[in-house]
Design brief:
The N and C termini lie far apart (about 50 Å). Strands 1-2-3-9-8-7-6-4 form an 8-stranded mixed sheet. By secondary structure, the chain is an alpha+beta fold. It has 2 domains: about 130 residues, no CATH class; about 190 residues, Rossmann fold (3-Layer(aba) Sandwich), CATH 3.40.50. The chain is about 25% helix and about 35% strand. The protein contains 8 helices and 23 strands.
Length: about 325
Amino acid sequence: MPDWYDYVLYGLQIETNAPIYGLTHTVIRERADVTIYSGAIPVELAADSLEWVAPHQFRVTQDAPANAAQQYLREWRDGGYLELTYEGQITVVFALDGSRVWVSWSTSIDEPLRAFNVMGPMMGIVLRLRGITPLHASVIAIEGQAVAFVGASGSGKSTLAAAFDQLGYPILSDDLCVLTFTDTGVMIPPGSPRIRLLADAAQALYGEMVPYEVSPHRADKREYAVEWKTAQASPLGLPLAAIYFLEGRSDAIVITPMSERDALFKLLREVYTRHITTIYNDAVAFQDISMLVKHIPAYSLISEQGHNTLKKLCHMIAMRHS
């Protein structure tokens, strides 16, 4: 019987038979929401089983990026399971209720890269299977409230979050923002206690002397551990106060309120792992984001050029939510 490791991530209690690199063990007092079996796929779900057939519920959307388009999907003939294989390096089988995951790794996939896939794309799919909508966004905490930054890859979400971290505002989650709807509002649970930055941003914000690892997802990025302050202070998450869309850079900071309609259509394109989807998943995301934009203000944000202007931008945003 293997040792079991327990974690809390994105509001879910997770148990796994292998440690997740970069996460801190958490004693789970209740039954786990998700069980991850790492190392092998059960014989009854083996890749050569004739029960695996072409997907009829799931699809990869036509506008999928190259890495998503290369993912190979199959479904269990009678339902119940989804299999995803990526470049022959990773095979993952998901129970369709999002309660169990089996993953087989190539020996070339090291521990940091395994952790990235678990905490990112794999959990993104689990969340959507469970009827939970995650966004591709970085989230920071300002005086007990969550503020999310959304934008295209390379727009500076993580860099801005790291700049807030340097000023003492905790990073709630980097890259993946999970929407949890309650009677009192939209809550954002804590994510992974990591922040991934391009090398120039890392040097400008943290300096050369701060230990880092090369990001397993992109060799041109550096990965830093940050203090997971909000996980201890508010384990169930923080209420979402605002969403900022990073729209580019100019000579001056410009923050403009967005209409519900514009925010809705932009956020639908920022659903995490949206390229692997079903009609049901699309309907859930549309319903959740429609509700989100009715209650949470969204803003277009044009920032100034240069890392040396980030402190000014952080103070400006912090004052809006203090």
